[in-house]
Amino acid sequence: MGQNGFYVHPSSIVDTTTIGTGTTIWAFVHIMPNVLIGANCNICDHCFIESRVKIGDNVTLKSGIYIWSGVEIDNNVFLGPNVVFTNDLRPRSKNKNYQLTPTFLREGASIGANSTILAGITIGRYAMTGIGSVVTRDVKDYALVYGNPAKQYGWVDEIGEKLSANEEGEWRSADGKRSYRETEAGLILV
Questions:
Q1: What phi, psi does 13 have (nearest 5°)?
Q2: CA end-to-end span of the chain, whole Å?
Q3: Is pLDDT larger for residue 80 or for residue 176?
Q4: Which of 16, 66, 81, 157 ranks highest by number of CB atoms within 10 Å?
Q5: Which of 120, 117, 110, 98 is nearest to 156 (CA)?
Q6: What is the helix (H) or strand (E) element at residue 179, kind and residue range?
Q7: Least confident range of 31-35, 62-66, 142-146, 170-174
Q8: Neighbours of 51 (CB within 10 A)
Q9: How large is the average pLDDT for residues 7-18?
């Protein structure tokens, strides 16, 4: 770790000063000014982070991810290699008056490699997208989605294990220690 409590590889360009303790920024990363990065994050090679992005604590960004203004990432989120974000629903070259459309990734979400995330959606707490998913609508808490367009195919727990239904209409973890109840927003721990 450097004297500021975080590590930046010498080949990277880091123009923000708000980086949490224990964060590592690896080779060929470019981070613009006014980016907030939490503690204990791991930002792998060849990532670009545009101004006004917010990243929580314990976030992992694998290689080849570009994150545009308007994306907010909560704590403990995992982004697989080459995840793609957008922030403009009607892009045109040289349009300086575009409307920024915010995107939110909630606590503990995991985004599979090569997933594409449409601007303006929210991916819920502990939700998971499969590799190569094209996510075009909000994803509920604990939902497992995949495909093009991504559809829900089940529920997962905090560690990513699939849940199964029990006789009482609740969802149970594979080890049987946790139960979840379905709500409009997704699952909640009972």
A1: -115, 115
A2: 40
A3: 80
A4: 157
A5: 110
A6: strand 179-183
A7: 170-174
A8: 13
A9: 97
Helices (H) and strands (E) counted in the chain, each on its own, are 0, 26
pLDDT tens sequence across 90-100: 999 999 899 99
CB 2 within 8 A of CB 20: no
Residue 175 in contact with residue 114, Cβ under 8 Å?
Answer: no
Q: Which residue bears the tokens 């981070």?
A: 31
In whole angstroms, what is the distance from residue 144 CA to residue 131 CA? 11
Report the distance separating Cα 152 and Cα 166, nearest Å: 19
Provide the pLDDT confidence category of residue 23 given band limits of 50, 70 and 90. Answer: very high
Q: Before 102, cis peptide (omega within 30)?
A: no
User: Tell me, what's the pLDDT at 188?
Assistant: 95
Neighbours of 81 (CB within 10 A): 16
Q: In what order do the strands lie in the sheet with 164-165?
A: 164-165, 171-172, 179-183, 186-189
Query: Which pair of structure tokens corresponds to residue 95?
Result: 């349009």
Q: pLDDT of 107-116, one tens digit each?
A: 999 999 999 9
How is residue 6 annotated by DSSP?
Answer: S
User: How many residues in the chain?
Assistant: 190
